[in-house]
Structure prediction request, 115 residues.
Amino acid sequence: MNLLNVVEKELGTKNEFPRFIAGDTITVHYKIIEGNKERIQQFRGVVLQRVGTGHTETFTVRKMSGNIGVERIFPISSPFIDKIEVNKHGKVRRARIFYLRDLTGKKARIKEKKF
Prediction:
């Protein structure tokens, strides 16, 4: 067995988050430490991709702040992530939806997956 996998099993903490994929709209509750105070900030946007496996997995979330697109990469095993809420499941056909960066207005919408 790989030595890295052994260390990951022993020291890694596994957070339980809901299942989400690219195209889903999620809200990430992220802990911010300012001086000696700690608060939780919400980052709501569309998941562009999920990369990696296990302890090194990350996901990219994009939101529009005014007319400017803001992207943030979150490690899935970060101790600063308080919780993740899935707001909408999007209907996309790709695992990485970078084409969303170039679209504006109604073309930038993602259809909601019906269950």
